[in-house]
Amino acid sequence: DVSRALPLPLPLRSPLRHPALRALDIQPDHPALKHLESTGRLQRLPEGFLLRDHPDDPATPAPDPHAIAERIEDVPEDNARIEALRLWLEHHRLDRATALLQRHGDELCEHGHAADLWLLLDAATRHADTNHDPALRDLADWKAWCGWEWGSPQAVANIEDTPQDSWRGAMLHARIRLNRGELPDAVRLCRDAALLADSDRDHDTSILFAARALYSLGRPHDTLALLPLCRSDHPRNRIEREVLRAECIGLDDRAERITDAVETLLEHADDLGPTARLRAFLGLARLHLLRQRLRDAERVIDSLLRVGAERIADSVGGRTAIELAAMIAINRGQFDRLRQLAARLENVRGPRVRRLFIDCYLTAAAQWQEPPEHLTRRIEQLAREADAEGEGMAADVRCYADAVRARHAARHGIAPHDLPALPTDRQPTPIVRVSRDLARACLAAAHGQTPALPPIRDQDWPEHRALALEARATSALHRAVLADPPDPAALAEAIDLLDQGLTIAHETGYSLFLLDLLPLRIITALLRPDPGAARERLRALDDIARQHPLPRLDELRQLLHALASEHGPHPAALEALVHAHDTHPTVRRWSLWLLGESPRLSPLEAGLLPHLARRVHWTRPILTGDPAATGTARPGLDLQRALLWSPEGLTLDLARHGTLLRVLAALANRGGTADKESLITAAWDITDYHPLHHDNRLRLATRKIRRLCEDAGLPQPIDTLEDGYALRGPWRWIPA
Predict the structure, then answer these.
(1) Least confident of 307-311, 353-357, 529-533
(2) What mean pLDDT is predicted for residues 205-219?
(3) What residues contact 417, with CB distance under 8 A and at least 6 apart?
(4) End-to-end distance of the chain based on CA atoms, in angstroms?
(5) How many CB atoms lie within 10 A of CB 735?
(6) pLDDT exceeds cutoff 60 at 368
(7) Nearest 5°: phi and psi at 291?
(8) What's the CA gap between 670 and 662, in Å, rounded?
(9) What is the 3 state secondary structure string of 52-96?
(10) Of 15, 399, 621, 646, which is most buried with the most CB atoms under 10 A?
């Protein structure tokens, strides 16, 4: 019989689906299948096929399907196990279905199959009375568990009705409480679940979950007290315990030894399943972050994302890996990578709150490109979406969005009183709250207020340490520029603090802070009387730029190099920086001020920039024309350098055309418009003006100016009026 060539029993009363076929290496074009189809013994269906002993006898008794399910269940492939579960449920072998879920259910959920499991379990338990059948009760608990993992509205609709008198039911309610931010209740439920556990594995899962919740509550001593209660010495649990222990200890030699031990465990833990291995590597990445090794954490996460690229976004651990990778990307200033990670989570099934942090990071990246009003709208939308979720993480989302908004306000000169805190009815986790408080402290320091800083230790998160140093340095720099000349003691304090912050940002890989700390550090060098110090810091900036290819770092370098140059910045270069598409906001604001505009400045910048201009011998241009044209591109006249410039960066040297320069200077000095007599008097020092004698030389001069500008590619600078001439449009001019 040709059908005996197939590795499965015949006949089948229910379809054998394609996933099981693939798991058993049965190809759709298998010769035996083709032969059976030709004899009428095989019926192909969209989801698989049916087999019968005889085409004319549909009532032929089917063999026990258990053999099929047992064979498929033993295949180490997700789809095969799901197919086996379907067969067990379809043939009412609930005990075997429950046993299969106990062995492989968590792993299947981690691999993104929670939706498939929930749909099967829902069909099996929808109309059954789960109160009187223990097997159905277990399946109902599993259905609720898978529904929570899936996150679909239909799956979580009545999830809180799940009883808490089983291990899985108690753990489910603990996870719900944790996501709502109700951490004490989550810890209590985990302890209850540990008492209900039937195995050491479930017991330790409860203990470690409670320990993680206690750590999130900021209670490291209680966390350490729980860890010895674990019973199993399985590498999976040992790694999780060691990671928690290191996080509680902080940054010292023990954490270093623990990290090395975890790496050794991972090298030799061959029996770790994919789920345990994923969690273990996530723990290792957290250890690297704890030890301020952002690049090592990035390497671990990248290896995870590459290995499971095709399905990792659909697993809980995979989503955590992507969120962690996004956090690393924003702190490294890798905005393009951040957008790629966000795209991977775009269509992931699960609660919306899982994507809100990615959106927060995207908003943080947008602050370098978008104007304040656009960013404010984005943050308000984030806050509304977080509220709609009704989850505990929503408080963290609002708090992080508030921190982003404070950093953005500091870069755009917005005062603290114009930035009320986003309200929330729940407390965020400590690490996010400290980030917000430090961001607002930096904003307060830039506006001359004494920042209220939480206590920061050497072993704390590098982001927090860098923010605290920036706030203290900003406060010291503000004290320095209040004096004239700047107070050398306060200036030295600011320099020391900024150097510490730069060291942290550079050595730990938190590159984003370089964009905030570098300009302040080089400005402090420019304020000191020694020009060599500024040039030395600029060389260091060039080295950092080569090692950290951050967006908009080139604009910072251009502005700071121009300020440190012997002749000061070129006005045409400043125009180009102002009107580039996505200029660094600080660069744009400072360039506008140097060009004679009145951008919104913080009190620190308002005191700092005049000192800086005097130090580099820079004269701010005077504006002519429409006063409402603030911030628009303007051509200009530099009487010190004897040149014209265009907003596009083109220049015209008038050093050999003194008369033409005096005509343009006379127009600029009179607000952009002058009659002929005033121009003749100013350009040729003639006091007895007569139109017949002098108008022709003025006409020839203006014609020559127009021709020279046309040859140089500059726009026409002069319009002819009935009784004189005018500069065309708004201008800037730098007096001699």
Answers:
(1) 307-311
(2) 82
(3) none
(4) 105
(5) 14
(6) no
(7) -85, 10
(8) 12
(9) CCCCCCCCCCCCCCHHHHHHHHCCCCHHHHHHHHHHHHHCCCHHH
(10) 399
| C-alpha distances out from residue 177 to 14, 215, 320, Å | 41, 15, 18
Q: How far apart are CA 451 and CA 478, in angstroms?
A: 12
Whole-number Å distance between alpha carbons of 587 and 554: 10
- Spatial contact of 378 and 400, defined as CB atoms under 8 Å apart: no
Cα angle 382-384-387, degrees, rounded to a multiple of 5: 110
Of 75, 39, 66, 35, nearest to 54 by C-alpha is 39
Distance set, CA 180 to CA 177, 348, 387, 424 (Å) = 5, 21, 11, 13
- In whole angstroms, what is the distance from residue 180 CA to residue 188 CA? 15
Tokens 């050093």, located at residue: 655
Count Cβ neighbours within 10 Å for each residue of 379-403 and write b for 16 or more, e otherwise.
beebbebbbebebbbbbbbbbbbbb
For residue 214, give the 3-state DSSP assignment. helix
Give the confidence band of 62 by pLDDT, cuts at 50, 70, 90.
Answer: very low
Contact call for residues 416 and 426 (beta carbons, < 8 A)? no
Q: Which of 550, 557, 553, 551 is nearest to 573 (CA)?
A: 557
Read off the tokens for 556.
């910072």
> In angstroms, rounded to a whole number, what is the distance separating the alpha carbons of residues 597 and 623?
8
Per DSSP, helices labelled H in 269-419 are: 274-290, 294-307, 316-332, 335-344, 353-366, 372-389, 393-411
Question: How confident is the model at residue 353, as a pLDDT?
Answer: 47
Taking the model in full, what pTM does it have?
0.61
